[in-house]
Amino acid sequence: MPIPHPDAALLRALLVRHEDASGTWPALLWRAGDGWQMISSAVLGGGLGPRAWVLNAQVGHGYTRLDPDRHLAEIAQRHGMTGRGVGLMTAARVTEGAFATDGGVEALVTAGIGVCGWAAEPATTDLATSAQRAVPVPGTVNIVVALPVALSPGAMVNAVATATEAKVQALLAAGFDASGTPTDAVCVAAREAGEEVPFCGPRSEWGSRLARAVHTATWEAALRYRARRLS
Fold it and tell me: In a structure prediction context, what are the per-residue pLDDT tens digits for the chain, which is 231 residues long?
């Protein structure tokens, strides 16, 4: 994926580097600037509110730090980021991510799908499995979406649901029998200024564009992952 992508007008992510105990790793950094409202499930900057940057940092598969929020903040600060932002983490190769745009909506997705399954699984009483799931691990399908319009708070939540639905559809289309991985994350960014769009479901004007952009980017990222794993 060319970085920044030549078709990106909003999501012009840069490729940067960071170091930890296991080596030097790439990361994607979007310096969004002021004037953005973001909603995210990210470990750093999650929730809803003004955000000025988004970082998607790759780490090793054996990542063991128990303070990923602090780690992401340190990486962002080293690259000059100040104020509130969103920090995502992944063991996927961020340089194999995919970008897509549809009607002004832009999506950037990184995907590592080695550990995947369906969201609703049978309950387990296996203590070892429960303990393992309690340890924070890097997210593997990370979705960042930017819209050139303002969304109401309800529409922001709706956009997260729409992006998630599109992700599942794309994974199935790419040949993965799964709804995602246990640690996927999403971030939706919308403009602060302007009349708020009240809906962002998959059949609304902006929600349908978001769904198509996320679907295309997730599908391409998933196929790249599959091609490398099977080569």
Answer: 888 999 999 999 999 999 887 889 999 999 999 999 999 999 999 999 999 999 999 999 888 888 999 999 999 999 999 999 999 999 999 999 999 999 999 999 999 998 899 999 888 655 445 444 444 455 489 999 999 999 999 999 999 999 999 999 999 999 999 999 999 999 999 999 999 999 999 999 999 999 999 999 999 999 999 998 866
Alpha-carbon span 145 to 141, nearest angstrom:
13
In the numeric block, which tokens belong to residue 131?
A: 């303990």
Q: How far apart are CA 94 and CA 77, in angstroms?
A: 20
Which residue, among 87, 5, 75, has the nearest Cα to 38 in the 3D structure? Answer: 87
CA angle 35, 39, 45 (to 5 degrees): 85
Report the alpha-carbon distance of residue 150 to residue 194 in Å, rounded: 6
Bridge partners, residue 89, by sequence: 57
CB 92 within 8 A of CB 58: yes
The residue type of 56 is N
